[in-house]
Structures are given as C-alpha cells and as structure tokens.
Amino acid sequence: MYVLGINLSHDRAACLLKDGRVIVAVEEERLDRLKHSEGFIIHGHFEKLSKVLPMKAVTYCLDAAGIGIDDVDLVVGNRPLGDEAEERILRELPIRDKSKIHSLPMPSHHLAHAYAGYLASPFDEAAVLVVDGVGSKVPGTGRIEKHTIFDGEGTSLRRAHSETYPEDWSEVGLGLFYSFFTAKLGFVTRWGHPTFGDFGCGGYTEAGKTMGLAPYGRPHPEWENLLTVKGGNVEARTEDLEKAWASWLASDGVGFDPKQKDAWKHQFAKDLAFKVQDETEEAMLQLARHAHEVTGRSKLCITGGVALNSVANQRIVAEGPFDEVYILPPAGDAGIAIGAAYYGYYAIAGGTERHALRSGATGRVYSEQEIAQAVQAAGDKVESRKATVAEVAKLLAEHRLVGWFQGGSEIGPRALGHRSMLADPRHPQVRDYLNEVVKHREVFRPFAPSVLREEADKWFDMRGDSPFMLLVPDVLERRRAEVPAITHVDGTARVQTVEADVNPRYHELISHFAELTGVPVVLNTSYNDAGEPIVETPQDAVRTFLNTELDHLYIGDLLLTKTGRELPDRHPSRQPLA
Asked: Rounded to whole angstroms, how far apart are CA atoms 62 and 45?
C-alpha cells in the first residue's frame, strides 16, 4: 500500500510510504533551491498569497518508487492555521480518483507532528511532546495550538494535554517566544515583503544561530523572567516581550544595531541569546516532566520545530524522567509530510506494520551514470579519479576539506554523512576557516562531530545514542584539547553517533580516520554555502564544490579536485599540527 504525505507549511515536503515504511521523502527546497520553499504565488504587492503544492518533491518521490500518481492508494496533506490542505490537493494534484485525498481532523497540525514523531520511533508506547511556533486554529475558539502532549500506544495516539494561545498573538508559546528575540538579534533569512514572517521580521527567523550564540553570553539576574511556566502550560505576553526588549536594549544594549554586519559581536546580543536559551531550556524540561505525569510513560518522543533545539533536548535526556528519548530528524514542518503519510496508513487505512526510522537519509540514490554526467559537465575545471574511502580519510588527516556526497540525501536541517562537508576536528584553525572562508557565515557558529557509536562514550558525556545530531553533550574534559574544532566555547558538541549498519560507508571513513589519527571523530557540517539549501543532486554537489574553497569532493567512488588550484594562505594544512 502506497501513501503519499504532503507538507504545505514552510519547508514544503513530500513523503511516500509503502506498507508503513518510509521509502522516500524530500524537501522541496532541495529541488527548487529556494531556502524554506514556502511555495507562495504572490498577487499584487503581497495583497494575497496563494500556496501551491510541492510538485517537484511529489514527482521525485513517485519517480524514486517507479510508480505514477494513480498508483498511490491515499494522499494526506497538512498545513498549520486553517489547514485547507485537502482542498488545495484536490485542486492541484492530477490524480484521477479524488476520493483518495484526505486531511487530518482539526486541529490537525500537532497531530501530524505527533504521528511523525511517534510512528517513526522504535517505541511501542511513549509520551509525545509537540512544541512549535504556530499550530492549527482550534475551531470555534479563536485560538491556535501552542504545545500538545499525546499518549502513544501501538499505532494510535490520544491527546493527553494541550495548550493554545489567542489568534491575535497577544500571548504566545515557546516557539514564538524564541522567534521574537531571534528576530530582534537580526538572525533572519530574508524573504519577500519586509513585513513578512513572525512579528513582521521580513523572513524566516534563524533559531539555530541564537542557540549557537547563547554560550557566549552572561546571566543578567536583573532581567526578569518572561515565560510563565506552570504545570503543563508555558506562556508569554507579547506586550511583556516588547517592554523587556526596549528596557534591556536601553540599559545594556547601547550601540547594538541588528542591521549592522557582525552585530552579534556586541555583548548585549550574546547575553540576550543566553537569556532566551536559558528560559527555553527550563520550560522544555518542565513540559517533559508534565508529559511524564499525564501519560505515565517511560519513553518520550519530541517533535515540532522547538525539538530542533538540541541543547534543550540534552537537558531533557540528562535531567528528565524518561528512560529513552527519540527525536525525529525533520522535527520541524518538513516532518509533517511523514506524519501526514503515517496518519493515512495507520488512522485511515488501519495499517499495522511498524518500521522505525533509523536513518535520516530518505532521498533517492543517484546512479554512477548520473554522477559521471555531472562531473563531465564541469569540463576542465575539475580533475577526477577513482579513490577509496581510506584515501579520503588520509586527506582529512592531512587537514584537507572534503565534500562528501554518498547515497540518498537527508531530510531535515542536519547533514548526517550523506551530504556533508568534512574536516579534521583536531586542527584548532579549522572552525574559523570553515566558517569564514568556505561557508561564509558567522565565525561563532559551532560545528558538529560525527563519532563512531562504539567509541562515543570515550569522548563525550553521552546519555544514549544521538544518531540525528539533536543532542549536545559535554565533550569529556580530558578530550577537549584533542578536538578543538568541534568543541564549542562551553565545552559541548552537537554529536552524531554513527552506526555501521545504518551508514556503513561513513562508518568506514571514520574508522580509517581513527586508525590514522587515534581520533574516531570527524567534523561534519552540511554541504551548502551560506543562504542555499543542502545539495541534493550530483550537479548541485559539483556546483557548490566549484563555488567554495572545498579542497576535494568525494562523490560515489570519484574523487574530484579543482584544476590548477593552490591552497589559500589561511588553509589549515599550511600550518600542520605539531
């Protein structure tokens, strides 16, 4: 049985299930190369916006499975607020039997998140915590979903607790609280009209930057708490946020201007990020405890956009009441496509098969011929040859930076060893070089380590596996000097544990690197330049390779170098380790 799930929110995506198993899923942005791929058709001067289906993603999924749209048994879509996904799909999807098209019952958005977060997990029973910015409108109430706790058992879910906020946004929840201050810090991906987006910020807030900046900040005991946390509710009054921002800016932010380049360097920006992150962590920890109280479950699934806050996740794992925690790799709205498909299979069709999502690599695999064509199209700009994984490990040990394009692409914001830029974590200059020279982004932003699962406890204070890079444990103090490029300023790292049976080639690479260096860790960051989505196709990979200061690209079995290129003066290999 084939079920097609479609996300019509930001980060539009499609997912195809076969008998309950995710066989392919992809975000539209990877195909149309537009960050977040909102999919609006603009009428006039932003007087009206019409949402369109992620047809590139839908076609990609069908082609990967070798089927046509009429071979699909069910189609289920979702988007937040008023939803209307079913109506849009009925209007635009060229499927003959329109009775196959469905939506989730309202309020639907958190339910779709919950289906994704729970049914992808390996758990037969679990509490499910959904926390995001904007959920569905709750019919007849004038309110919007804020956060919801579900109780999962078998293949079914029931709401155990839910909270809402008013449609006028006079009060907001955790997601919008974080978004409010992220926008004030100037961390925004610009899109469309200057007043588009949360709080008229002019685009999409970049919460990951706030999280990364927070450890550079200092506590301000005189700054009042803005979140009211009580039982299963977390709320903030928007008026209080505005007043606090104005007051703190006047007292501590003299000279701070978020429109200026490198505004993050102002201590006020760092302190504000610290404050927002600290309150968010405490609130998430309280919500997790409440989820345990109202469900009595020993396992937890976390999903929704706030579940991408890996530092808060770590607090829940380390300090919360649960024995095991699962966090979906596309915890944000891209994962809604997976949740919608699961709802179709389990709730509508009555499916019973369970298949845990152990890998975030849900994209199609490109053939040797497709790779060869992309390389040939680059002409004499590149030189290519067959190479082994061991040869790539040697290049990394020599402080070379390598683009790594292997297998199917990942869904979600994290590169997990399929569409990655890799580097030597031992070299103290690698972080700044990667940030400034290769990825053209803020120098404070940390990079993640990929570590052999069987060696992780010897390098990090692990509290369980972290296969999707969504936990941030401490780097063991005795190890920090050995891996400075992945150790953040507070001694932590956003770890990915790599298993041999999930990603064998990546595991092989790290194993070879460990044999050469004694360090079973490589630095892993997403394969993209600033402002662009992660690469999807071989053509994308070659183009970004040529447009950045990557030294090599390992794509399939081919190793690419740039013809006649000399290493930049700042290159880490020009200053080898002692």
From this structure: 35
CA separation for the pair 551, 565 (Å, rounded):
9
Which residues are CB-neighbours of 254 under 8 A, at least 6 positions away? none
Contacting residues for 296 by C-beta, under 8 A, at least 6 apart = none
Q: What DSSP state is assigned to residue 493?
A: -
Structure tokens at 6: 């479609």
**pTM (predicted TM-score):** 0.97
Residue 449 DSSP one-character state: E
Which string of DSSP letters, residue by residue, matches 174-185? HHHHHHHHHHHT
Torsions phi, psi for 537 (to 5 deg): -95, 165
Of 440, 404, 445, nearest in space to 421 by CA: 404
Q: Per-residue confidence of the chain (578 residues) as pLDDT tens digits?
A: 999 999 999 999 999 999 999 999 999 999 999 999 988 877 776 667 778 999 999 999 999 999 999 999 999 999 999 999 999 999 999 999 999 999 999 999 999 999 999 999 999 999 999 999 999 999 999 999 999 999 999 999 999 999 999 999 999 999 999 999 999 999 999 887 888 899 999 999 999 999 999 999 999 999 999 999 999 999 999 999 999 999 999 999 999 999 999 999 999 999 999 999 999 999 999 999 999 999 999 999 999 999 999 999 999 999 999 999 999 999 999 999 999 999 999 999 999 999 999 999 999 999 999 999 999 999 999 999 999 999 999 999 999 999 999 999 999 999 999 999 999 999 999 999 999 999 999 999 999 999 999 999 999 999 999 999 999 999 999 999 999 999 999 999 999 999 999 999 999 999 999 999 999 999 999 999 999 999 999 999 999 999 999 999 999 999 999 999 999 999 999 998 97
| Alpha helices, DSSP H, located in 259-344 | 267-295, 310-319, 336-342
Strands ordered across the beta sheet of 558-562: 382-386, 558-562, 552-555, 402-405, 419-423, 521-526, 448-452, 496-498
